[in-house]
Amino acid sequence: MNVTLLEIIDNSFHYEMENLCRVFFPHDEIKVIKGKGDCDGDKITAALVKNEDGTKVIASATLSGREYSCEFPMDIEDEKEQERLMAVALFRILTEATGYTPAWGILTGVRPSKLMITLINEYGRQGAYDYFTDKLLVSDSKTRLAMNVADAEERIIRSSSPASFSLYIGIPFCPTRCSYCSFVSHSIETPGAKRLVPDYVEKLCDEISLIGETARDLGLKLESVYFGGGTPTSLPAESIDRICSAVENSFDVRSSREYTVEAGRPDTITTERLDVLKRHGVTRISINPQTFNDDVLKNIGRAHSAQQAVDAYKLSRSMGFDNINMDLIAGLPGDTVESFMSSVDTAVELDPESITVHSLALKRSSRLVTGGERVEDGSRMSRMLEYNSDKLGQSGYFPYYMYRQSRSLGNMENVGWCRQGAECIYNVFMMEECHTVLACGAGSVTKLRAPYENHIERIFNFKYPYEYINRFQELIDRKQLIRDFYTAYKI
Ligand code: SF4
């Protein structure tokens, strides 16, 4: 792995500068040091210089033996503005050195649409547009994407009331582990994980019942239910039945606006499991092929074929599921622009109500990174996502939610596209943190959003199933915070 040294001199902008360097050099190790360092190889310097002539930001680099430099004078002592200008200077030299212009400019944050909403409120639509393109160097098409998503999210955010909440149920088991996965998810095929399932289901049902009682006592109103993970449908049908029954007995599910189960892996979707979901009133499921290229599926460690994804989709349709999402990922190892385009075409032909397109993220804990496999670079990612936007836009889908993960290739986005009226409201509520999410299960995080205030508190459940089972009482004690929180805020 190539190591690029990043020197940070007389400023505290190391986090942003490192993220920006990673956009240009996703496969390199970026070694950040404060002050000057010794290095014969590639080196980048981000310096804030103050002397009698004033203040200036300077970005310079020696990359593959060539020198680059860019500097801007500063006449204001605003740290945020200094950081922005430093990023612009760095962006300029790295663009020159690599010939690659990242479409999101210097914007490295997780929620571009949330920033867009803030800017629209502050400067109006044209002002927000100009801020994105002129100050953050975001391309015209990504700025329009952020604006479209901001509009769609605003509509959903407005529909949430102060006493409303969503329920999240976490199932940290999957059939096998995908090579790009960084979640805590256990392959249910291993004897150790399989043994945990009965106890896990029992504790989960206990937690659901306790959280239901709390929500009832506090007079909270359920808006949406979401089963995620992991792969919830990797559990046996009778376990899913038990968990769904616990949810039904503890919450007023029929009055919630949406009930999603992320079935996820096509190889777990069976008539028996779908029947359980249908009987319990699940309104939306997700079937995630990720790609329709069998070789790429093998590369990422998935034990199913593209045809199985198509079959799972058709089976779900035949059993009456009329709101289905499909996930695709751009940038998987071994995938090409053409093959990704063909996956998008196949998904559109199947005609699900929504298609969520993720950009591959190189998470440190994933096998993809630890195994050193090669993946698509940023500019090819751009071509994939541009095709996707055009194709989905022309096929009647519109973007309704968006987020970015750290270390995503090319700093690209994940976008939920859907047909009119098929937005997953949970995705927006959760991502924009506009209402409370009560979460049950290992690895899940309860987010308490204060009514009428922009204040969030989090309660973390234990990450691993065995901890969740063995320290269950500790976790239940923590959940008392929900009552304390709402009592303090008096809904
Ligand atoms: S299906 Fe999702 S959670 Fe499960 S191993 Fe793959 S990426 Fe991880």
List keywords for this structure.
491 residues, alpha/beta, Double Stranded RNA Binding Domain, pyruvate-formate lyase- activating enzyme, 9-stranded mixed beta sheet, 5-stranded mixed beta sheet, 18 strands, 43% helix, globular, binds iron/sulfur cluster
Description:
It is a single chain. With 491 residues, the protein is an alpha/beta fold. It folds into three domains: 3-98, Double Stranded RNA Binding Domain (2-Layer Sandwich); 112-156, no CATH class; 157-478, Alpha-Beta Horseshoe (pyruvate-formate lyase- activating enzyme). Helix content is 43%, strand content 23%. The protein has helices at 14-24, 79-98, 112-135, 140-158, 191-218, 237-250, 271-279, 294-299, 306-318, 337-350, 367-370, 378-394, 425-432, 465-470, 472-478, 480-489, and strands at residues 3-9, 29-34, 43-51, 54-63, 66-74, 164-171, 173-174, 186-187, 221-229, 258-264, 284-290, 324-330, 354-359, 398-403, 414-418, 436-440, 445-449, 456-460. Strands 14-15-13-12-11-10-9-6-16 form a nine-stranded mixed sheet, sandwiched between helices. Strands 2-1-3-4-5 form a five-stranded mixed sheet. The longest helix has 28 residues, at 191-218. The model has no long low-confidence stretch (mean pLDDT 91). Iron/sulfur cluster binds next to loops.
